[in-house]
Amino acid sequence: MALSISGVLLLGIVIFLLTRKGGLKVSHAVICALLGFYLADTAIAPGIEASGATFASLLSDLNP
Q: What pLDDT digit, counting tens, does each position of 14-45 carry?
């Protein structure tokens, strides 16, 4: 699994903080959906997980 438990925990904390701050916006809903796909075992979850891994790889390749 490309996303570790700490990644899921981080998404959970982000969702908690976003909902405590105010109303749920579109960006907040996207984060909630990502957390749901990572936690669920659906047919589309591997694609979402691969997209997340690709995005993380892109971020790690950026040099300041």
A: 877 877 776 767 677 778 778 777 777 677 77
- The pair of structure tokens assigned to 8 is 């899921």
| Tokens at 37, concatenated | 């796909």
Provide the total of helices (H) and of strands (E) in the chain, helices listed first. Answer: 3, 0
Which residues are CB-contacts of 25 (< 8 A; sequence separation ≥ 6)?
Answer: 18
Residues in the chain: 64
CA distance 13 to 7: 10
C-alpha–C-alpha distance, residues 56 and 6, integer Å = 14
Q: Check residue 29 and give its pLDDT.
A: 73
**C-alpha torsion 23→33→12→18, nearest 10:** -20
